[in-house]
Amino acid sequence: MDDDTPKRDDGTRQINHSDTDDVASTEDDSSSAASGGNTTSGEPVSGDAKSEEELDGEGSPTDENPATDDDEPVTAEDIDIRESIGPSGSTDGETDDDSSTDVSLDEVVLDDGGSDSRGLFDDLLSGEPIFENKEVLRPSYTPHELPHRTEQINQMATILVSALRGETPSNILIYGKTGTGKTASAKFVSQELESTSQKYDVPCEVEYINCEVTDTQYRVLAQLANKFIEKNFDVIENELDRLEDLRTRARDTPDLLADTSFDSLDGVEERIEQLETDCEEMETVPMTGWPTDRVYSTFFDAVDYNERVVVIMLDEIDKLVEKSGDDTLYNLSRMNSELSNSRISIMGISNDLKFTDFLDPRVKSSLGEEEIVFPPYDANQLRDILQHRADVAFKSGALTEDVIPLCAAFAAQEHGDARRALDLLRTAGELAERGQADTVEEAHVRQAQDKIELDRVVEVVRTLPTQSKIVLFAIILLEKNGVRNINTGEVFNIYKRLCEEIDADILTQRRVTDLISELDMLGIVNAVVVSKGRYGRTKEISLSVPIDETEAVLLSDSRLGDIENAQPFVQARFDN
Ligand code: ADP
Ligand code: MG
């Protein structure tokens, strides 16, 4: 039995340096970070920075780059990198305008010409509001009804009901793409489970952990340990109150003890002392610093302190495995054989259908005792979901009749993502509100779609690793200079020059090719393999996102920002 101890990672990963357990809110905020709400052309030609100039006031000094005559395909040799980078306003990603709104601050203030002095906010306030309760459309809102998820919810309930009978439910793995209602359904079920357990007074508890935030074994175990320690304290405190009261009364009336499990006052005294010692021994886990073994055993003791069935929900479990491997799951899934009072059951939720490929086979079979799939919603289902929310969120008559079907149709294309559908509807409403429209129209939905798409791109690009950013920047430079059919070699050459400029490590061409494939998978570039006959095959790469915004985001990175100030280097020559 000695191999049942959680030694598998004996200390290799025990210390977790990032000690903030801040709940980095993953809630989207579509008004964030985007460089401008205007939709932009994705044309791969430069000199088209018009929209940016207009927005920023400061126009670009140079627009004379060699590529604007588009008949003459420019080769990579013609590129002067310094020239190419500079112009479009050296933005630092803060083109934080909202040019999509029709009301500018100027207008609002100037509108003041009338007799009654209207302030900055009057017009905005007096506009007929579109929303009744916008919060209902936010991802943080938990709906009370989940249309089209009855089947999955019933499946979960059928498995978890054992917990209410004091038995250990099978472990469950839930799969489905983002926005298919996994988190919402799981939370709904856990609320029901806990409230029923209270109703019948059975010891059953659910712990929800979002592994995107709590993403190391240390953190997961520490969070669980501390939750249970807290619960144990509560239980002990109540018990102590009760016993101290009993002690006082039993001193006067010893017969009282006849109805209890205690033979004598000394027994009560002993129990009180025992509980007090337990309390002292229960030490909460600090956010960093302990060896993992110690965190694990603290958690183990805390759970096993009382009789209970515990369901541990690990949402975004694929993120945990990706970041920290499967040690956590390995240790958790083996606990039941050692626990004496309690039982645990794991419910893993994953966006990635293939994440179990990376698991130890034992973990995989244990975790996947039951599997539930959340299929994407189709457009009709999304309509229902939106309608339910819209009824509460909007003033009556605020939506024209095309709005919900269009949001549903867009989101259905986006792998049936209900989150996207709700974002679209909310953003469309916000755009209408800012434009002081009386109703939300189809056009607002289209505008919202563009805005959300741009926000997504900005976010993806912003969070790329530096090396990928340099590779992407190289592709942008080539495109801005009108190079067509860009191949990996060309990207690599520019990439090398950029690395030299900012003193970054230069990866091998092979690695750069991998990074290009990753950018392709993220939808930032499009790389198609073309056959060159007897010269073999090559990749042709093109940008699939708006060039100016992307460039602005890249330059807002302090490392890449240096490229602008770096020593000019004249011509990028390719000497393969
Ligand atoms: P997932 O966890 O699968 O990525 P969520 O459960 O977070 O998806 O759902 C995304 C958003 O869509 C949430 O705001 C959620 O409330 C909403 N949602 C998903 N499915 C439904 C449904 N069937 N009915 C109502 N709202 C839903
Ligand atoms: Mg989720």
Automatic annotation (TrEMBL):
Keyword set, alphabetical order: ATP-binding, Coiled coil, DNA replication, Nucleotide-binding
List of residues binding ATP: 180-184, 377, 389
Domain Cdc6 C-terminal: 472-554
Domain called AAA+ ATPase: residue spans: 168-378
One annotated GO biological process: DNA replication
HAMAP family: ORC1_type_DNA_replic_protein
Any GO MF annotation of the entry: ATP binding
Residue ranges the record marks as coiled coil: 226-285
Residue ranges, compositional bias (Basic and acidic residues): 1-20
Bias kind Low complexity: ranges: 31-42
Described function: Involved in regulation of DNA replication.
Source organism, top-level taxon: Archaea
Region described as Disordered: 1-103
Name assigned to this protein: ORC1-type DNA replication protein
Acidic residues: bias regions: 21-30, 66-80, 93-103
Family, as annotated: Belongs to the CDC6/cdc18 family.
